[in-house]
Amino acid sequence: MFSKKVRQAMNDQIHHEIESAYIYLSMAAYFEAETYPGFSQWMKIQFEEEMAHAFRFYDFIHSRGERVTLQAIGEPQAEFESILAVFEGALAHEQKITGDIHRLYGLAMEEKDYPSLSFLQWFIDEQVEEEEHVGEVVENIKRAGDNSHALLMLDRELGQRQPPVDVEGE
Ligand code: FEO
Fold first, then answer.
1. For residue 58, what pLDDT is reported?
2. Distance (Å) from CA 94 to ligand 1 centroid
3. Most Cβ neighbours (<10 Å): which of 5, 10, 138, 154?
4. Which residues sit with their C-beta closer than 6 Å to ligand 1?
5. How far is the CA of 149 from the centre of ligand 1 (A)?
6. 20 C-alpha vs ligand 1 centroid, how far in Å?
């Protein structure tokens, strides 16, 4: 049975994921304005990933015979102190999302909602990867410091990021 508490928490998680997408799109726009097209591209792909996460929850809720109700999204931060501040903000945000997913998993365990536990396992693994990837970018930016050449190289490297291949349903 689809636990009502789990369904409500998943509905809230759709909000968190779309809010994440919005935050990353705002970060992309900041980098666009600062003429870092690679960092901007990386954030735009991050935006796409978050929307894909939201759709996983959306599809799951509907596949279990319930419906989603959407919530208001707040205005994201638009200005940042530095490149490092943006990516540190992204890392802190991912750590918060990891906490959300873990609480959701814990709730599904309490409720003995086994299909939800199975579904959420993908997100548990995904958050490990997300934190790892953003954490690597943070470390690389710290290493580059004020070296404009190193930052340009990093911008080019991150601009190579490709959109996610979603294998859901295969
Ligand atoms: Fe949907 Fe980046 O967590």
1. 98
2. 6
3. 10
4. 17, 20, 50, 53, 94, 97, 130
5. 30
6. 7
| Regions of the chain where pLDDT drops below 50 | 169-170
Are 6 and 107 in contact, with CB atoms under 8 Å apart? Answer: yes
Phi-psi region of 166 (alpha: psi -120 to 50; beta: other; left: phi over 0): beta
Provide CB contacts within 8 A for 170, sequence distance 6+: none
DSSP at 20:
H
User: Which tokens in the block code for residue 114?
Assistant: 């086994």
Q: Atom of ligand 1 at shortest distance to CA of 130?
A: 2
Please tell me whether the overall predicted TM-score, pTM, comes out greater than 0.85 for this model.
Answer: yes
In terms of phi and psi (left: phi > 0; alpha: psi -120 to 50; beta: otherwise), the region of 92 is alpha
Looking at ligand 1, which residue's alpha carbon is closest to its atom 1?
50
> Under CATH, domain 4-159 is a member of which superfamily?
Ferritin, core subunit, four-helix bundle (1.20.1260.10)
Domain spans of the chain, in order of start: 4-159
Cα of 129 from ligand 1 centre, angstroms:
10
